Amino acid sequence: MADNLAWSPKDPNEVLDYTINWVNRLGTDTISTSVFTVDSNLTVGSTSNTSTTTTVWLSGGTEGATGNILNRVTTTNGRTMDETVLLPIRSK
Predict the structure, then answer these.
(1) What architecture is the 5-88 domain classified under in CATH?
(2) What's this model's pTM, rounded to 2 decimal places?
(3) Shortest CA distance to 65 belongs to which of 11, 20, 15?
(4) Beta strands in the chain (DSSP E)
(5) How far is CA 59 from CA 43, 81, 89, in A?
(6) 46, 62, 74, 89 - which has most CB atoms within 10 Å?
């Protein structure tokens, strides 16, 4: 099993977009749908996807915590893939 991805720390007051590039896992397949699930200390503003990437806008977070963001995609060929990203929450 691969290690979780990690993003640079986010300040609790920031509202930022984060993107996952799925191209290496997809091969010739493409993303049909994408769903993000986040820890209760983070808030999802909006999500979007292209055929190879997924993006989530996040706000909030608890100082000193590390948020877990799960992205589940379904591909046009019927595959379901998960990726979990760790997001440290730190005041800047």
Answers:
(1) Sandwich (2.60)
(2) 0.92
(3) 11
(4) 5-6, 16-21, 31-38, 42-49, 53-60, 66-75, 80-88
(5) 5, 25, 10
(6) 89
- Domain ranges in the chain are 5-88
pLDDT digits (tens, 9 = 90+) for 4-46: 688 999 999 999 999 999 999 999 999 999 999 999 899 999 9
Long-range contacts of 12-16 (CB under 8 A, 24+ apart): 12/60, 12/61, 12/62, 12/63, 12/89, 12/91, 14/59, 14/92, 15/45, 15/57, 15/58, 15/59, 16/57, 16/58
Task: Name the band, by pLDDT with cuts 50, 70 and 90, for residue 1.
Answer: very low
Q: Are 36 and 87 in contact (CB under 8 A)?
A: no
